[in-house]
Amino acid sequence: MTLMSHGRGLRDKALVGLLLLAAWWVTSLFFQYWVFPSPARVLTALNTAISDPAFGSFASNVAVTFGRLLVGFVLSVAIGGVLGTLMGLRTNVEAFFRAWVVFGLSLPAIFVAFSLVILLGITNWVPILTVTLVGIPFVALNMWEGAQDLDSNIGEMADFFGASRRQQIRHVLVPQLLQYLFPSMYWGFITSWKVLFIAEVFGAGSGVGYMVNYWFNQQRVDMLLGWVVVPILIVILSQEALRLAEDHVISWR
């Protein structure tokens, strides 16, 4: 993707965002502000959350949430990536883990979160492990399919020219797997964010999900939405960063 086409893509996304914002404002005119607050009221609530410590430390809670997200996401990509690659390359590994991957994909995130709360209590590890356990089978499935589609001719050519095992992994295996790893990371990051949010609502004593649950119990829809505006923007920007990294790495490959 060229820089110009990427710029057009950003403009298109910005236009969609403005249209959604306008639709939000128009819809809010038909409801009471405590049922469906306008964008202006949500921005006021966001400013209150940021500036008034009595409403919870905004920066620290957002930092805690994304710290958990990063740890859980990295663990799920690392473990799921290795597992899926081995499943695609070795039939005995595939035979052993196939049913477990399908089982993991079928587990609802809320069930995993509740189970970890029962086992561990309200701890910092509940949301991290929820993201990791839910993400591993998702990443493994994508990498498993990718490893099965590897071009064997390239590997045979590397053998013919006497490439070492390390050289084959670095210059043959990894470049081919990158085209499957980045989509796994792209969608896995979105999934991880949603899973983490659920886990923080039910199994954490801090973070954005915890604060949203608090304001839900207070029946303050404006504060509830105010707490998720910035995290959602961070997730969107992170997705764009992953897209740029994918374009750079794949073009290099």
Automatic annotation (TrEMBL):
<comment type="similarity">
    <text>Belongs to the binding-protein-dependent transport system permease family.</text>
</comment>
<feature type="transmembrane region" description="Helical">
    <location>
        <begin position="223"/>
        <end position="242"/>
    </location>
</feature>
<keyword id="KW-0813">Transport</keyword>
<protein>
    <submittedName>
        <fullName>NitT/TauT family transport system permease protein</fullName>
    </submittedName>
</protein>
<feature type="domain" description="ABC transmembrane type-1">
    <location>
        <begin position="62"/>
        <end position="246"/>
    </location>
</feature>
<keyword id="KW-0812">Transmembrane</keyword>
<feature type="transmembrane region" description="Helical">
    <location>
        <begin position="96"/>
        <end position="119"/>
    </location>
</feature>
<dbReference type="GO" id="GO:0005886">
    <property type="term" value="C:plasma membrane"/>
</dbReference>
<keyword id="KW-1133">Transmembrane helix</keyword>
<feature type="transmembrane region" description="Helical">
    <location>
        <begin position="125"/>
        <end position="144"/>
    </location>
</feature>
<dbReference type="Pfam" id="PF00528">
    <property type="entry name" value="BPD_transp_1"/>
</dbReference>
<keyword id="KW-1003">Cell membrane</keyword>
<feature type="transmembrane region" description="Helical">
    <location>
        <begin position="14"/>
        <end position="36"/>
    </location>
</feature>
<dbReference type="GO" id="GO:0055085">
    <property type="term" value="P:transmembrane transport"/>
</dbReference>
<feature type="transmembrane region" description="Helical">
    <location>
        <begin position="195"/>
        <end position="216"/>
    </location>
</feature>
<feature type="transmembrane region" description="Helical">
    <location>
        <begin position="172"/>
        <end position="189"/>
    </location>
</feature>
<dbReference type="InterPro" id="IPR000515">
    <property type="entry name" value="MetI-like"/>
</dbReference>
<feature type="transmembrane region" description="Helical">
    <location>
        <begin position="69"/>
        <end position="89"/>
    </location>
</feature>
<keyword id="KW-0472">Membrane</keyword>
<dbReference type="InterPro" id="IPR035906">
    <property type="entry name" value="MetI-like_sf"/>
</dbReference>
